[in-house]
Design a protein that fits this description.
Distance between the termini: 151 Å
Number of strands: 4
Number of helices: 71
Radius of gyration: 46 Å
Structural class: mainly alpha
Strand content: under 5%
Oligomer: single chain
Length: 1458
């Protein structure tokens, strides 16, 4: 710009064009550009600082840290280019400067990097050395530096090894985070550092300890994350390098492996030393806990999944080797304790008392192994190392507690140890087994059987490990004797009271040990008599329990066993004899504690009465107990009469009124204070124990119990009225989701007082169940909200158990109260649907703003299910609206909770309108897929079967329409996962069958309600059965007969005791089975009879298959016969009609019936005998049916034979010589004779009967003999019935008939087969004629017949009958077995109608007399030995009599040498 122009006034301005025109454009010359470049380079060289260049190289990266995530993709290319350019420039400059200085470029780059590193970390060096972590700003700068170093490394301008050497020259203990960052940026891997640094173990262990002991500042999440990352990375590299099976031959790799192992071992020993410090400092414990956590998710969970830990990825096998090594080191760490120390201190090493760090370590080490692997490794360690017994036993406890399946594995290990111990007489295996078994027992019976049970199972029987030889026994007793000086007293008591099995000849050896153990107990001032009846060493962790406390536990256990079995346990009976001091001084005083006796006898009262009847309670002690209970009742009665003045009640009313006012004002702070004052007032009215710990309690809800005290009833009423008023007041202004948490606070104050909550629950039950008609809409709304709030407080509130129990276990308050909402009548249904609609609406609105899972806390699933049942039932429109989340819901999809709540609180609305709104509400629909909110078909049937038809809200046609919709449209097509049948009609049929049988069973047990919907559901079952049968006939589907009988078999199997059990079934199981079969028979008679016989198509033709029917009768029906051995007439007729109806489907029906009846005659004696018994009644029915089905034909030949046999039986008196019809079985003939005799066709005359017996001489024909034997069995059944039920007149003559038959058959051994349990030969059908219970009573019948109900036995009337019976082959064997059976009956329970002692005495006298008169040749030697062994335990006198009179050796001493 020219000078003149510059001198112009400022006001004059030139235009842009004039300015541009005034400039002279000069073209640059090439020489000028070169000179300019050289000048710039010279200036840079003069001012260049490599440290500054390092900083500038990282500046762009520092800026990149703050780039947003969205901008990363846009700038990825430019960043990469910038980074590469910066690294290239930096590398070039370093090389240029190194060439000028005459040093290698790598050395210069290392020098510059270390100077920069020192600059970053030097300001806080001391603190860094102590804690091992950098500050956040330092960490960012270090990252930028290492990024630049990585670029230099990629350019070949940096030597990592030289970098580490120079760094270690300056740093005595390297910073662990710096090492980690070098590793993570892949500049120097930790593995290479360890291989090259001989002192790595020293600084690694020191750094790890310091890092574990450092606590991040509160809220500094980044520091905590980096701390965990550093530890995980270091441990991962150490594990991989130390335990990977490397194939590298390099010396560095071989040197690194033991170094890594040593570092890990040092950390483990530091951890274990911390554990041993009791108690360890908090900081040390936290540091050890952090190190243990490093073994868990960070190491195992990541490495096993195949991902790497900052470059270290250890395989699964490597981890297993590491964990195995660590576990071994832990179990063998400082093995200072001896075996004797372990025996004495073992009770202090249980899981509950063990150091939490030690158990956490064991949990982490065991995570990758199975239980079997861990126990096998434990066994190897015990066999090959000196161990730390404390660690070993704590490890076993941890394994048992956290692994439910470890009990079986430990039992197998103990078995192997004991087997090994007794095979080689190995003391180490022996002591190991005992210590491990005791440790398991110390953890409680839920974890492992008690020590007494294990000791008894291992050594208490003749098959024990020690019972094989005297040497084994001596080994065991010597071992136990050596333990005596160190044994805790509980184990000594177990060995004394439950000693090992010892043969009689070695009894002295056991007594020596018992004497030694008793002496030791006396030194310890412990008494064997103070040990409880059911004492478990593990119950108190091995510590001695006070005798009084143990007696209380014994009483509770004995009462519980009595309640479940109905009998006094053998332990109590033995204690009353063999441990009488404890029984009288401890057990009875604990049992006979004074209390207020209930009106209805409970289990404890029944148990006391049973002991009194057994003469186990002294009369004076019992009288004192009764008087004390009477005094207690009077005291309780006086205590109930509380001071019912209105002062506390008035205070409660006033406080509740103030709370209502505060609620309207919305003052939450004052509301909380008022609730606190309210809680104090309630604690005065409902006094409790203020020091009682807050725990999950169970409230007993007595549905028919006595009323509560008047003051409590009034207080509960005031609380309920106030809560309802509060709900109304708040609902006028806001919906529940817009209100404060006042309701939760209110209910929380109630949950803290168990006595108050109990009264509240009782009152609500009474209102819902008995006073529903008196509740208004306002009451319903308030009480519904209260139930919802109580349901929401379930996690912190008590559970409720109904009394009498109608639910299997304690439940929440809402579910317990929902059981009061029955749906039997129209009034019940209307009240229930109104209450449930209000409750569910309140719950939906209350939880509207909460997450879905928390919303369910405010919607009781039991009330929701009742709506699923009632709304479609009472509102047909709802049946066409499917419940499916996200389905079409019409205009209600956008309905808001306030709109739903307004329909509830609308005074002009109806329950139908509100229910319809709720039914279509999205929140209501979203709950239905949840399993807890699904109404299954079985639940629907259970409720529907409770409805009373006469008081139903639906008419008969409406109910039929509803049930058809529910069965065919709702549940048949619904998937199984949602409670339906998945389109399977057989499954729906099974559900209906099960529900009908359950209803039949409940009507048998509790016949309270009649006129239910059972006929309707039975009709639905018949419709389904018909539908299934039609589908079977039109397709190749499985037969419905098999399906029905299999369903019943499963029900009977669940009701009957296990067949494998040798013990006699309990009375409860017998009654349950009989009730089940009775219910099934009722259903069976309502189903088409033809369904019970299977028709199979074979070779183009149809044939009958009766196998399933025969098996059903033999296995199940015979167990429910009344009278025994005889089906009812209706059932017999039904089965036969089914047989004929199914045969009519075949091409040759008569031939099929004959073949089927032949099978029944051979394999189903119960149906054969029943048919013969009821033939006169069923014959006309069958003949009419057959004529209709077969065009007027006569019954098939096999059935016509029944009429001929009946005619023969009735005419036998007049025509004694008439032969029986040809083709008739002996059992059929006997059944016909038995029927003719029982029906009075013979006139009942004794002489006529004798004449008829003369016509059937047993010696004249085998058939006659078999008929008489079968007839004897049938008469014996009648005789047993007369003994069991003497009030029945029809069977009183059975004993006389049996006597006549015995006299007629006395010379034949066949009659003895009737009383045998096995090997009956041709008389085997009698085994399938009676139930197992009646078969067990046959020994009683045997001797009662021989004794003939008189003072003198039958066989003593004259010498001839006795001689005839005794000489009969097999008599003495049968008599001995029947006596043993009678003795067993006496041990299980007293015989009826006769003193058991008298029965046994007379039977034993008869047996001994018969043995004395029996020749020695009557029994073979093997049979005699068998009988002697069977009698030896139950009655040695009988065994001695057999040996004395029937053993040839005892009669001929000179033959002893044989």
């Amino acid at each position: 710009m020219s000078l003149s122009a510059s001198c112009e006034p400022a006001a004059q301005k030139r235009t842009l064009s004039s300015l541009l025109a005034g400039r002279v454009v000069k073209r640059p010359r090439q020489e000028d550009a070169v000179q300019l470049q050289e000048a710039a380079l010279q200036l840079l060289e003069q001012q260049l600082d490599l440290q500054g260049l390092l900083r500038e190289a990282g500046t762009t990266h520092l800026d990149n840290i703050f780039h947003s995530q969205n901008g990363e993709q846009k700038q990825a290319g430019s960043e990469g280019a910038t980074s590469a350019t910066a690294g290239s420039l930096l590398a070039c400059e370093l090389r240029r400067r190194a060439s000028q200085l005459g040093v290698p470029a790598a050395a210069l780059s290392v020098k510059m990097a270390l100077e920069r590193l020192k600059e970053i970390t030097g300001s806080e060096e001391e603190e860094d050395q102590r804690r091992g972590l950098l500050a956040s700003s330092q960490r960012v700068q270090l990252g930028l530096l290492l990024e630049s170093c990585r670029e230099l490394l990629s350019q070949g301008a940096l030597c990592p090894k030289l970098l580490w050497q120079e760094y270690r020259r300056d740093q005595r203990l390297p910073n662990l985070e710096v090492v980690y960052q070098l590793h993570s940026y892949n500049i120097l891997t930790l593995k290479s550092i360890i291989e090259s640094d001989e002192e790595a173990r020293l600084w690694l262990v020191s750094g790890l300890k310091a890092l574990c002991g450092w606590t991040p500042p509160q809220g500094d999440e980044e520091a905590a994350r980096v701390q965990q990352e550093v530890l995980s990375a270091v441990v991962g590299v150490l594990v991989e390098s130390g335990f990977e099976l490397s194939t590298e031959p390099a010396a560095a790799a071989r040197r690194a492996s033991p170094l890594c192992r040593s570092a890990l071992d040092d950390m483990l020993f530091w951890l274990l030393d911390t554990v041993e410090k009791s108690p360890a400092p908090r900081s040390a414990a936290e540091a050890a806990e952090l190190w243990i956590q490093t073994f868990g998710a960070s190491l195992c969970g990541t490495s096993l999944c195949g991902t790497s830990l900052c470059g270290a990825s250890a395989s699964g096998e490597t981890l297993q080797r590491f964990y195995t090594h660590t576990l071994t080191q832990t179990l063998t760490h400082k093995p200072r304790l001896t075996v004797s120390d372990a025996i004495a201190l073992q009770k202090e090493w249980t899981f509950a008392k063990a150091n939490r760090l030690l158990t956490s370590l064991f949990r982490q080490l065991a995570v990758v192994f199975g239980v079997e692997q861990l126990l096998c490794h434990l066994q190897r360690v015990l066999e090959t190392h000196e161990v730390n017994w404390r660690h070993v036993l704590c490890f076993l406890s941890t394994l048992l507690v956290y692994n439910p399946g470890a009990q079986r594995s430990l039992s197998e290990l103990l078995s192997r140890l004991l087997s090994s111990a007794f095979e080689g007489y190995d003391l180490e295996s022996m002591i190991t087994a005992f210590l491990l078994a005791r440790q398991g027992a110390l953890e409680g019976p839920a974890i492992f059987p008690s020590y007494s049970s294990w000791f008894k199972m291992s050594f208490g029987g003749g098959s024990g490990y020690h019972a094989s030889s005297k040497k084994s026994l001596v080994f065991l007793l010597k071992f136990l004797s050596d333990l005596v000086p160190f044994e805790p007293p509980q184990y000594l008591k177990v060995h004394i009271l439950q000693p090992p099995y010892v043969r009689v000849k070695h009894r002295s050896l056991l007594m020596e040990y018992v004497s030694l153990a008793k002496t030791r107990l006396a030194d310890l001032k412990e008494s064997v008599e103070d040990m409880g009846l059911y004492e478990d060493v593990s119950a108190a962790g091995g510590a001695s329990m006070q005798p009084q406390c143990q007696a209380v536990q014994d009483v509770e256990k004995a009462v519980s066993l009595f309640e479940s079995t109905g009998r006094i346990s053998a332990t109590v009976m033995e204690a009353s004899i063999f441990r009488r001091p404890y029984f009288l001084s401890r057990f009875l005083p604990a049992l006979l504690t004074a209390r207020t006796l209930p009106v209805k006898a409970d289990a404890r009262m029944s148990f006391i009465e049973a002991l009194k009847k057994a003469d186990k309670i002294p009369a004076a002690q019992y009288s004192s107990y009764v008087e004390s209970c009477q005094k207690q009742r009077q005291q309780d009665g006086a205590a109930v009469c509380l001071d019912t003045n209105d002062e506390p009640l008035e205070v409660l009313k006033m406080q509740l009124q103030e709370f209502t006012e505060l609620l309207v004002e919305g003052n939450e702070g004052e509301m909380s204070a008022q609730l606190s004052r309210l809680s104090h007032t309630l604690s005065v009215i409902f006094p409790g124990r203020p020091d009682e710990p807050i725990e999950r309690t169970v409230i007993e809800l007595h549905t028919s119990g006595p009323p509560a005290p008047e003051l409590h009833v009034k207080a509960v009423g005031v609380i309920l009225r106030s809560f309802c008023q509060c709900v109304l007041d708040t609902s006028r202004a806001k919906p529940p989701n817009k209100q404060s948490l006042w309701a939760s606070m209110f209910v929380g104050a109630l949950l803290g007082n168990t006595q108050l909550l109990s009264g509240l629950v009782h009152r609500l039950w009474d209102l819902f169940h008995n006073q529903a008609a008196s509740l208004s809409s306002a009451h319903l709304l308030g009480l519904a909200a209260l139930v919802v709030q109580l349901h929401a407080g379930v996690p912190r509130g008590p559970l409720v158990r109904l009394v009498p129990p109608t639910l299997p276990e304690p439940v929440g308050v809402a579910e317990a109260l929902s059981s009061a909402l029955v749906c039997r009548t129209r009034a019940d249904m209307l009240f229930c649907v109104r209450l449930c609609v209000a409750a569910v609406c309140y719950g939906i609105c209350r939880g509207e703003s909460l997450p879905p899972q928390q919303q369910q806390d405010y919607i009781p699933h039991s009330l929701y299910k009742k709506l699923l049942y009632l709304v479609p039932r009472l509102s047909p429109d709802a049946r066409g609206t499917p419940l499916a989340a996200g389905g079409p819901i019409g205009d209600q999809r956008e309905e808001t909770p306030p709109g739903l709540w307004s329909s509830v609180t609308d005074a002009n609305g109806t329950w139908r309108k509100t229910a319809w709104h709720l039914w279509r509400h999205p929140a209501f629909r979203r709950l239905e897929p949840a399993p807890a909110y699904q109404l299954s078909v079985s639940e629907w049937l259970a409720v529907e079967l409770q409805v009373l038809r006469r008081e139903d809200a639906l008419s008969d046609p409406e109910r039929q329409e509803y049930q058809l919709w529910a069965c065919w449209e709702l549940y048949l097509s619904r998937p199984e996962q949602q409670g339906g049948c998945g389109g399977d009609t057989r499954m729906l049929c099974a559900h209906l069958l099960g529900a009908v049988m359950d209803q039949q069973l409940s009507s048998l047990e509790k016949p309270h309600h009649t006129g239910t919907c059972l006929p309707d559901i039975l009709t639905r079952l018949q419709e389904l059965v018909y539908d299934v049968e039609v589908s079977v006939l039109s397709s190749s589907s499985p037969s419905l007969c098999d399906f029905l009988l299999e369903s019943v078999r499963q029900r009977c199997s669940s009701s009957s005791p296990s067949s494998s059990s040798s013990a006699a079934p309990s009375i409860s199981s017998e009654l349950s089975l009989q009730h089940t079969l009775t219910a099934w028979n009722r259903v069976l008679l309502a189903l088409p009879a033809v369904l019970l016989v299977k028709v199979a198509s074979e070779g183009g033709g149809a044939s009958l298959q009766c196998d399933a029917l025969i098996e059903h009768v033999n296995q199940h029906q015979r167990k429910a016969c009344s009278p025994a051995g005889l089906l009812s007439c209706h059932l017999t007729s039904h089965l036969l009609r089914g047989l004929l109806g199914a045969a009519a489907r075949c091409a040759r029906p008569g031939e099929e019936v004959n073949n089927a009846w032949s099978q029944i005659s051979r394999r189903c004696p119960l149906l054969l005998v029943s048919t013969a018994h009821w033939w006169e009644r069923v014959c006309p029915v069958l003949a009419s049916l057959w004529r209709r089905r077969c065009d007027g034909e006569q019954l098939p030949e096999r059935l016509q034979l029944l009429s001929g046999v009946q005619h023969w039986a009735c005419s036998l008196e007049k025509e004694p010589s008439s032969p029986p019809p040809p083709g008739a079985d002996a059992l059929l003939l006997a059944a016909s004779l038995h029927r003719a005799l029982g029906g009075g066709a013979w006139g009942g005359g004794e002489q006529r009967f004798t004449a008829a017996l003369d016509a059937l001489q047993p010696e004249s024909s085998t058939l006659h003999r078999q008929v008489l034997v079968f007839l004897l069995f049938l008469c014996v059944q009648d005789h047993l019935a007369s003994l069991l039920y003497p009030q029945e007149q029809s069977r009183r003559g059975a004993s006389a008939l049996c006597s006549d038959l015995l006299l007629a058959l006395a010379d034949s051994p066949d009659w003895l087969l009737v009383f045998q349990s096995h090997d009956r030969g041709v008389y085997q059908p009698v085994a399938m004629l009676a139930s197992d219970e009646w078969t067990r009573l046959m020994p009683w019948a045997f001797y009662s017949l021989l004794l003939q109900q008189s003072a003198e036995p039958l066989l003593q009337q004259s010498a001839e009958p006795l001689q005839r019976a005794a000489s009969c082959p097999g008599f003495i064997g049968t008599a001995v077995l029947c006596y043993l059976g009678l003795l067993q009956l006496h041990l299980e329970g007293p015989a009826q109608q006769m003193e058991p002692s008298l029965v046994l005495i007379r039977a034993k006298q008869l047996l001994l007399r018969a043995i004395a008169q029996t020749p020695p040749t009557a029994l073979s030697s093997s049979r005699l030995r068998q009988l002697e062994s069977q009698c030896a335990d139950l009655d040695p006198e009988v065994a001695a009599a057999l040996s004395m009179h029937l053993d040839p050796h005892s009669l001929s001493p000179e033959m002893d040498f044989l």
